[in-house]
Amino acid sequence: MAAAPQFGLFANSTHTAPSPGTQPPGTNNDAISNGSADTSNTSYMKAAAYGTVGTANLSAGTAGSAPSATTGSAGAVTASGAAWSAFQSLQGFTQYIILGSTPAATTANDWNFTLILYTGVNMTTGTLQPVITFQYAYS
């Protein structure tokens, strides 16, 4: 890898930027990534990631304090060091998580993360198939 990897959540594989607060119907519109008044227009999907990559399983422990339905802010939450990042809303690459370092290019590693999905009264129901996208640069 040539840069730190990041991940976010999209409506589908077109990777169209989410439209905060907008609920379906609509092209490339997703109830989970867009959020609603229930989530202060952040995504219903929250995530935290461990700050280092490795091949060993993490020891038992906690991923930190549970987020609220409104957790999330513009930009990236950085996962760094041997600890869990703060929880972040996964809303495309508007609200996402990035690793605080660039992993070695020739080493197989794992990057641990945890997800929490909320639902709410203002969420449009139906078949929801969001796409979690892992993005990285390479040389």
Main attributes?
1 helix, 7 strands, four-stranded mixed sheet, three-stranded antiparallel sheet, 23% strand, 139 residues, 3% helix, mainly beta
Please outline what is shown here:
This protein is mostly beta strands and 139 residues long. Helix content is 3%, strand content 23%.
Structure description:
The model has no long low-confidence stretch (mean pLDDT 89). It is built from one helix and seven strands, in the order E-H-E-E-E-E-E-E. The protein is an all-beta fold. It has one domain (1-139). The N and C termini lie close together (7 Å). Strands 3-5-1-7 form a four-stranded mixed beta sheet, with no helix packed on it.
Radius of gyration: 15 Å
Q: Give the helix level as a range of percent.
A: under 10%
Number of helices: 1
Report the span from N to C terminus.
Answer: 7 Å
SSE topology sketch:
Elements: E1 6-10, H1 31-34, E2 45-49, E3 75-79, E4 88-89, E5 95-99, E6 113-117, E7 131-135
Parallel strand pairs: 3-5
Antiparallel strand pairs: 1-5, 1-7, 2-4, 2-6
